[in-house]
Amino acid sequence: MKFISSYRDPKLAKRLHELIDQLVSRLERQGVSRIKIMNFCGTHEHTITYYGIRSLVPSSLDLIAGPGCPVCIVPAGYIDTAIKLAMEGVTIYTYGDMYRVPGSYESLAQARAKGANVKVVYGFMDAVRLARNEKKEAVFFGVGFETTQPTLASWMVRDAIPENLKLLLALRLTPPVMRYVLRKSRVDLDGVIAPGHVSTITGAKAWVFLSKEFNVPTVIAGFEPLDVLIAIAEILRQKLHGYSRLYNEYGRVVTWDGNLRAQEITDKVFEVTDGYWRGIGLIPSSSLRLRDKYASLDAIDVYGLKIEKGIDTRSGCKCNKVILGEAKPTDCPFFMKACTPAHPLGPCMVSSEGTCHIWAKYGGRLLLEKFELE
Ligand code: SF4
User: Fold this and answer.
1) Which single residue of 131, 308, 312, 354 could bond 165 by disulfide (Cβ 3.0 to 4.6 Å)?
2) Measured in angstroms, how far is the CA atom of residue 205 from the centroid of ligand 1?
3) CA of 322 to the centre of ligand 1 (A)
4) Cα 202 to the center of its chain, rounded Å
């Protein structure tokens, strides 16, 4: 017997579909001709595309993918630096998707084919284990949003990192980039579906500024199809009644304050600083760096590195615009021609959380019948 999660219940989906249709019709009667809702998170984009939710909602409702792919926004200069270290004989440990993201001229995978010393790991624990066993100079090249930061920090707090392992980290914070999108992007948003996983750490409170400062209805949502449909309906309902507030649809996991222990550990090890986002630029208070106490672990200090400004955007690639919701993957002339998941030109085509990659795999799908598991 097939298991169907209650968050994939076809009857509830049908009712939500009808509700969304009604809300959009009522907004259209009020003179609203276009409604734009941004989902921050790559996993929400996966749900929307995989389940064909765009095929379900009225055509005047745009579901726009946002900047929630941590691999996509790592500046090319970090990849170039990791390649340089690897070519000099330092072992670089990194995640599988980071391994394939193009730097200014090549990816770590391409550099490895030329003899660079690069190994793919599933997580930081693997890097620690390998460094202990191999006893060679090594650097863990780590990236991530708020969900990955406490795990890294916990290793440092426990003083459990072998001496031969250093860290090259491109850690970024999500609320500042959403603030940037609302201030700078050319997309006027009517609502935001805020990230579920990140909010388990930050708490719902991290997103209240979207409704308070920007007057944008905001829903923290889970990742099942019904979670997303509920989020869309709630945003439309708020817009129809002319108010904006933060609604936590993912209350089964996300609390108001989030994971206080994880926040405390992260704060012990890292401090907030301005951060450069690939193809976008410098965003205030959007990055984490190691506190002075942990400087001996920082590959940048230990190897006297300078992260140069690399070539973030290759000619014609619209990844930076896709990340800000200003373009769709299909607006790019290379999409599924010169740029495919097997031969990615830009970072958005590499990661499973990258919008181009998701559209390449599942784009054009109609609503999966009854949301059944395959
Ligand atoms: Fe960049 Fe490829 Fe996406 Fe085009 S399809 S925007 S080249 S990643």
Assistant:
1) 131
2) 34
3) 8
4) 15
